[in-house]
Amino acid sequence: MGLSETYSAVFAPEQMVVLGLTVMALVEANASDAEPIETVGRVVTVVLGAGVTVGVIAATPELLVGESAGDLQASLALLVGLAVIVAVWQSRDWGDHVLWACLTLGAVTVVHTAIVPFWNLSGHVLFSMTPLGLVALADRRAVVLVVIPLLMMPARVGAGVHTPLETVGGLTLALLALAVLAHHRPEFRQSLPV
């Protein structure tokens, strides 16, 4: 396994989604002076959503066929996992940042799913930039995290799985989603105190 493949595996999209949502949950819990047990509950909720996503993927291996079946399966699974997080988050009234992060991730997931059968847009770039960009948008001190998806672009090209244009497409979709969120929910952009 070469450097490009290793980088793609270490910073795989599913790990970046969990990392981004976990950091967002921790920062939001800290900003709201949550009790330690409530903070643990928030992190467990994100992990539960990730577990549901993996469970849906494992439970549906042969329901989908075709060239884009894997992307469609992962997208549907992610949407179910995000729905679990949103449902628990709303029932506990834990704040808006993780909710908007999940909704933004859900939106890019739907768009990605619609595009992939026609153009192999880089999901690795999209699903690393979106969650890590959300964290950076909510707390400017985390802007260094966006280096990960920026380095993912040459890694995916180097691995031979995407063209440069496909990686730029993933980055563009992520940045567009972040810009829409920042425009329509300006309070999301405020730095959360740590």
Question: Can you give a write-up of this model?
Answer:
- It is globular, with a radius of gyration of 16 Å.
- The protein contains eight helices and no strands.
- It has helices at residues 3-10, 13-31, 36-59, 69-92, 97-115, 123-138, 147-158, 164-184.
- It has 194 residues and is an all-alpha fold.
- It has one domain.
- The chain crosses the membrane at residues 6-27, 39-60, 72-89, 98-119, 165-184.
- Keywords: Membrane, Transmembrane, Transmembrane helix.
Average residue pLDDT: 92
Helix content: over 70%
Could you say which structural class the secondary elements and strand pairing correspond to?
mainly alpha
Q: Specify the overall morphology.
A: globular
Strand content: under 5%
Query: Biggest β-sheet: count, sense, barrel?
Result: none
Reading the helices and strands in chain order gives HHHHHHHH
The N- and C-terminal alpha carbons lie at a distance of 39 Å
DSSP strand count: 0
